[in-house]
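---------- Forwarded message ----------

FYI, see the Glycosyltransferase family 8 protein record below. Original note from H. follows.
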Amino acid sequence: MSIPTAEQYDFTPTQDWFSHNIPHWKSLFPHIRTESYHVKSNGARILEIGSWEGRSAVFLANELCKARAPTPAPAALSSTSVSLTPSHVHSEVVCIDHFDMFKSEAGKERYKRINHNLSLTNKNFRIIPEFSVTGLMRLLNEAVVAEDQDPVVEQGFDWTYIDGSHRSDDTLLDGELAWRLTRKGGLMIFDDYLWNVEPETSIEHPKRGIDGFLALHRGEYERLSGKEGLGGDKDEGKEYQVVLRKTVDMRIGYLLPSNYDTVSNSSKSNRSDILTSSAFGYGMNIGVACDSAYAMPTSVLLSTLIEHTPGRKISIYLLDCGLSELDKIRIQRSIPTSSSNTTLNFLSLPSDSLTTRLGSPVWAKVDLVKVAPVERILYLDGDILVRGDVWSLWDIDLEGNPIGAALDVGNPMGHAGYTTTPECCSGKYFNAGVLLMDLTKHRAEFDELVAQCHAKKDSKYADQDALNAHFAGKWKELNLQWNAQGLGTYANYEAPGRHWIDRQSMSNPSIVHFTGPVHPSLVEVLNPYVQPYTSKPWGYAGSPGHPYAKEWVAAVGKTSWLEFFEGDWKDLCEEAKKRVAEEALEKFQVELGV
């Protein structure tokens, strides 16, 4: 098909409010970073609110869309959505404009012209002759339905242009609804930010609506307008068009009653589960606690948790047991920027905390019971690497128990200082590194739990022994997929109680728990009964033989701690290694009486 000439298009010459934007817009094309357009090289999907006769839509179709197969001529004048777009299409222009609801001759004429003009492009297009809110809701409803089709029909837009109503409240609403349809990496453009027809402070001017949108979604976009090399005005806040690149995933935010059963019972359980929980506003509460010594590994924990649990609303409650301001900044910066559904809340220790009274942060998980402002929480130790979506863990029914935990692989029947009895808990002893907790039940017996903590303060595994004693016979056993311990070392050995250990469940775990000391003593390193020895992957000795130690080290590189880990931390590890050797020599000499 030959390229149409300017004379073939039917535009009103005196109504060209767009062409001066062409150089600026062309400079923006390379900044589209959506997976569909930038990675898969599909043509763009374009959404335009306020199209008039289609001048900007024609330009975008010719520049960014791919040609379509021959189609019939456009439909006659209709108040319903007109589409020359085949199903499952990757590239199209969608225009929303009310065309005076066809109640004026001018509106009818504009509708006729836009159909004519877009037909000449030989690109897929769709015209929705409605007010923007109903038109956008039509697209959002279609996106909800498409999510549950198999294969999934790709939704969202790579380029969204808002040039509809000039009222600030209308502009804010258009932006909010269109944002939900804009793909991660896609561009959204607000027009008329510096419109001079009405005062900027008036509701009849779009600026207040655009400013409200920018404030509401701060952290979810990169502001491209006002930057050097992108055309247009050079000062942010003084640009006539505000250009944003979205940095977070699409979120439709609701389900349709007509397809709810399909969604909730879909065989595509993981995707449908994410869609359902997101729409209903369900999320998970994560509890962690650390001081400066564990700030770096805790950052790895949180980074991998969010990376492997996409699309979920996650509220993190971090109990501060002695963090510096720099620690907090580094932890915050380690949260993936793409996760707009994640909030990080720093909590202070209560005035009567066990951590303070008993002199160790190991008791912080109990203090968290008192201060976390929620009723259910998933507690995770800082020496954990998350490798899979933990939503299934969060969703486990505790069956009336106050706590869910996995067996302690090293001591499934307890240890020399703590023995279990078949009468109270089938003789099993759990690990306290991963705990799914009903805090309401915990708080009902909190004084008794605190008493157990004081009684076990000098026990070998203090907090873990106290929790096992308090919840004996009242805990839900979790699969070791959720707390894989001793991998590459003692998990492979036979010992009393190890017949309970399902090693197959730890073959590809969702949560890896690095047990053992950060800096092992010489006795621990040389212990012939546990080889390879057990230690943390970030300590001076590493975690030799552990199948996921290198994965942990790689995960540090995705946090804000990499420079510290490769610099100052390595120096500290060398000092720790020398100290361990010196302490061992000193003990050796004492034994010899030297």
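H. also flagged this: Confidence is low (pLDDT under 50) at residues 259-268.
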